[in-house]
Each structure stands twice: as structure tokens, then as C-alpha cells.
Amino acid sequence: MHSIYSRVNGVSGLWSTCITVLLVAIALSSFLFNAGPKGDLDIVSLKVFHSKTRRYPYKNEEISFVKFNISTDFTPLFNWNTKQLFVYLEAEYTSALGVNNTVILWDRIVRRKEDAKIDIVQKDKYRLRDLSGSFRDVHPVQYSLRYNVMPYVGMLSYGEAARTLEPINFPEARDSVS
User: Fold this and answer.
1) Which of 29, 141, 154, 158 is a plausible cystine mate for 93, CB 3.0–4.6 Å?
2) Which residue has better confidence, 53 or 103?
3) What gap in Å lies between CA 7 and CA 3, rounded to an integer?
4) Distance between CA atoms of 99 and 62, rounded to whole angstroms?
């Protein structure tokens, strides 16, 4: 006869194997749901102003303010394995020194399918600053709306929902915010 410990070991081994197989099946089934949401992204205005730096008040820099319009439906990304979405607006540009920069200007976490329809006109959440302190001689900026699907079980997946049709030039810097 088997002792109680060997019986508990056999039952717990069976259950852990069943749960592992179930979790692997859930993770693999997430690859079957490949939805590619498409939307619209319009840049309403792009303004650049002179400003003082935070750390060194005697030093000047240029700050960019972006106002944008997003109209996208992320509901096809929600299935039974989707925990939440991380949606963000990204700006990509090349500085005057030839360095490629990617900056997040706005983000939102979408936890429910009911909140997955985004239709907003808003200003940027995070300011756009260049390390050189100026946007002079910077190549035009390309904006894109991207998302990250975070499942309960499985791998993260990334995608792009919208992109501006053509790059936008930085305007000349103004002296005051208006």
C-alpha cells in the first residue's frame, strides 16, 4: 500500500500537469486572434516655445506642444485572454546630429472592452524636448499611435493602429505661450 504522502504527491503531480497543459493551450490560442485595429491620427497643431530648463534656470531650451485628434476602435483586440491594452502616441524624428529619437507624448491604459473606443482631441501628456535644447535643423517628425496587448497568459504583442500620412516640420520657436 501507498502512504498518504505518495498519494498526495501523485494527485498534486496530476493537477500541476493538467494546469500547465491548460495554460500552454491558452497561450497558444492567443496567436489565433490577430486583430489589427485601424484608426485615424491627425495632428491639429504643433508649437515650439522658448523656455528655461528645469534643473538650470539660466539655461534656455525649446519645448514642443502637440495637439492631436485620435479616433480608433481597439475592441477587436479584446478576447478572453486580454487583460489590458497600453495605448500610446509616439513621435519619431532625427536630431540635427543624426541621432534617431523616439518619444512617447501621450498614453492610456484600457482595461475594459467598453473603454476601447478612443475618440479624443487632446494636448500631449508629456512635453517634447530635445537633448540639444533646440529643434533647429531637426528633421520632420512622424507620429504614430501604437498599442501593446497584455494577456493574462502568454506573450505580449505590439502593433500600430495609426500613423500620420506625412512627416511634419517643426515650426520656428516662439517667445511666449499663447
Assistant:
1) 141
2) 103
3) 7
4) 18
